[in-house]
Amino acid sequence: MSAPTSPAPTRTAGKLYQHPRFLRVWASQSAGAVADQILPVAFALYAVHRGAGAGTIAVILAGRAVALVVCLLAGGILADRVSRPRILFTADVLRAAVVLGALLTLDRLPLAALGIVTALSGAAEALSRPAMRSLIPALLPSGLLERGNALVAAVQRSATLAGALAGAAIVAAVGIHAALGLAAVLFGTGALAVLGVRDATAARARTSVLADAAAGIDTVRRRPWVLAVMGAVAVQLFAGTAPTLTLLPLVAAERLGGELAYGVVLGALAAGALPAIAVASRWRPRHPGAVSMLALTSYAALPASLAFALPLPVTALCFAAGGFAVELYFIYWLSALQREIPAEVLGKTLALDQLSAFALLPVGYALTGPAVAALGARPTLVVAAVLTAVASAAALLVPGVSAFRDPVQPAARDSPTTA
Fold first, then answer.
1. CA distance to 133, 285, 390, 411, per residue, from 349 (Å)
2. Is residue 141 left, alpha or beta, with left meaning phi > 0 and alpha meaning psi from -120 to 50?
3. C-alpha to C-alpha distance for 25 and 2, rounded to whole angstroms
4. In angstroms, rounded to a whole number, what is the distance separating the alpha carbons of residues 61 and 46?
C-alpha cells in the first residue's frame, strides 16, 4: 500500500502566508467561486424578465447540478493522471470561453439553451474540484491542512453570498450582459493566477481509465470507515436536506412570515458555517471523527424545527446550528482524507466522496412530493429528522470513524517457540 499523502500533523507548520503557491491557487479558486454563483442568478433573473415559467428556470438551474454528478468521477480520475494546476487553468479557461460565447450569442439563444451553458460550466467545475482539493496537501504541510481547508471553505461560503448578490444587483442595475462579462473576467483572472504553479506530486501512473476508476473504488472499499461516513452523509442529504429545502418555502409562507422569513432562514444556514470555520482552523480534537459525526446528528434540528411549528428566531437558530455542524464535519473530514489517502488515488477518492453525497439528492427531491402526499408534511419531516440523526450516530459504530483514520491493529502475540 502506498504511503499517505503527508505525515502526521506537526506544531511547527508555520503560517499560511508562508506558502505562496497555496495562496495563488486559493486566489484562483476564489475568483472562480464568485463567478460560479453569478451565472445561475443572472440566468434565472434573465429568464424571469423574458417571461419564462418555473419549468424553464428549473432546466436552466439543473444544468450545473447534473453536470457535477455526471463529471465528478471523471474529474477525480483526471486529477490523478494530469498536473492538477494545469487542470485548474484549463477549467477556468473553458468556463471563460463558455460564458463569453453565451454573452455574444445571448440575444439569439432560446432560454432552454441556457441550461446547456450552465451544464458546460458545471462540467468544467466538476473537473476542477477534485484537482483543487487533492492539490492542497501538495502545497501545505500536514499541520496546516485544517487551516488551509478552512480558508477555502470560508471563501466558498462567502462566494455563495457575494456572487448571488453581485449577479442580482448587476442584472437589475445594468443588465445580464454586464453580469456575464464580470463572470468571464473572474474566470480569466483565476486562470492567470494559477499559471506557473507546480505540483510536487505530478508523477502519474499510466494505467487505463477503467483501471483508475477501479483503483479509486478499491481504495474506498478497503477502508470501511470511509464507506461508513460516505453512506451517512448520503442518507443525510437524501432524507434530511431534500425534504427540508423542498418544504421550507411552503412552511415559511404559511407560518414564518413569507419570503423574508425564507431568506432569513437560509441566511442563518450559511452564517452558521462561519464560526465553524474559525473553530476547525484552530481546534485539533483527539477524535475528530467522533466530534464530526456527533455534530452532524444536530442537523436533524432542521427538519424538526419545521415539523413542530417553532417560531422564526428558533427555526433560524436551528438552521444556523446545522450549518455549523456541516462545516465543522467537512473541514475535519477533508483534512483526514488528504492525510490518509495515498496521493495517486486522492483525486478519485475525493470525487467519489462528492459523488456519493450528491447522487441521491435528486432522488430525495423526487420522493419528497409523494411522501408528503402519502404521509403529510409533518410526518415526512419527523421521519427526515430521525433518519438524519440515526445515520450520523450509527456511523460511529464502524472502527476508524471516531478518529477518521485506519484503526490501529493490535500487534500479533508472539507464538511460543520450541528449542
1. 11, 24, 25, 29
2. beta
3. 26
4. 12
Q: SS3 of 15, please?
A: coil
Residue 186 confidence (pLDDT): 93
- What the block records as the C-alpha cell of 277 is 470555520
Instruction: List CB contacts of 19: < 8 A, sequence separation 6 or more.
Output: 139, 140, 144
- Per-residue model confidence (pLDDT) at position 381: 92
Distance separating alpha carbons of residues 132 and 32, to the nearest angstrom: 12
| Contact assessment for residue 71 and residue 193, using Cβ atoms and an 8 Å cutoff | no
CA 302 to chain centre: 19
Which grid coordinates are listed for 260?
423574508
The DSSP result for 271-313, as a single string, is: HHHHHHHHHHHH---S-HHHHHHHHHHGGGHHHHHHHTT--HH
Do 289 and 336 touch, CB atoms closer than 8 A? yes
Say if residue 386's pLDDT is above 90. yes
Average pLDDT over residues 277-303: 90
Domain ranges for the chain: 17-203, 214-397
Specify the 3-state DSSP secondary structure of 330: helix
CA dist 250 and 62 (Å) reads 21
The grid coordinates listed for 8 are: 502526521
Pair 368, 244: CB distance under 8 Å: no
Are residues 301 and 356 in contact, defined by beta-carbon separation less than 8 angstroms?
A: no
Residue 342 β-bridge partners: 4
Exposure string for 286-325, b = 16+ CB within 10 A, e = fewer: eebbebbbbbbbbbbbbbbbbbeebebeebbbbbbbbbbb
How far apart are the C-alpha atoms of 97 and 311, rounded to whole Å? 47
What's the maximum distance between 2 C-alpha atoms anywhere in the chain? 92
Give me the half-sphere count of Cα atoms (radius 13 Å) on the Cβ side of residue 199.
27
Instruction: List Cα–Cα distances, 302 to 167, 320, 330, in angstroms.
Output: 28, 9, 18
Given a cut of 70, is residue 410 above it in pLDDT? Answer: no
Does 214-397 match 17-203 at the fold level? yes
Query: Domain 214-397 in CATH: superfamily?
Result: MFS general substrate transporter like domains (1.20.1250.20)
Q: Which CATH architecture has domain 17-203?
A: Up-down Bundle (1.20)
